[in-house]
Amino acid sequence: MDLFEEELKDILWVEKQLTKAIPKMIKAADSQELKDALENHLSETEEQESRLEQVFEKCDIKLQAKKCEAMEGLIEEASEVMEEYSQGPLRDAGMIIGAQKIEHYEIAAYGSLCTLADLLNLNEVKDLLASNLEEEKNADETLTEIAQTVNVQANENSEESEEVESEESDDDKNQLI
Predict the structure, then answer these.
(1) CB burial class (10 A; 0-12, 13-18, 19+) of residue 68?
(2) Model confidence pLDDT, tens digit, residues 131-163
(3) Distance of CA 84 to the CA centre of its chain
(4) What is the DSSP track for 59-91?
(5) pTM for this prediction
(6) For position 118, what pLDDT does the model report?
(7) CB proximity list for 108: less than 8 A, separation 6 or greater
(8) Is 2-149 in CATH node 1.10.1790.10?
(9) With CB atoms counted within 10 Å of each terminal CB, which end of the chain scores lower, N or C?
């Protein structure tokens, strides 16, 4: 039960941080499809936090979040992508990668919590956690679908940039001759 409680505090911190981070990602996204997916997941994240509060209550655990160093790093990494790349498909592709890393962390956390809840015979709690787990899996699948389009666009833009740079380089050489 102690491990279950510690992991609950961890994932509560995660969800609270994501309700702050996702709006920044929405603002930074170029693709409307990505913006829509992030907006949808923000609503889900708020509901997930509410479910976690119910879990704390049902387990008679003091509602308290515990800082998750791993998630802090993943959020920081996603922020760096938003700062490093200018708006467009390449930034969106990088943001999707960061978002999927976050989703995979959450999938692992909720999967483990479901297993622990099952072992502790906390069936109602397990159902609440399983709802969060399913939403995280669906968000990951949605991001994968969006990436198929965004990645192609990012690659095409990258190839166009390389062609322009190559042409500019040729022009520089001709001026020297």
Answers:
(1) buried
(2) 999 999 999 999 999 999 999 998 988 765 554
(3) 18
(4) TT--------HHHHHHHHHHHHHHHHS-TTHHH
(5) 0.88
(6) 98
(7) none
(8) no
(9) C
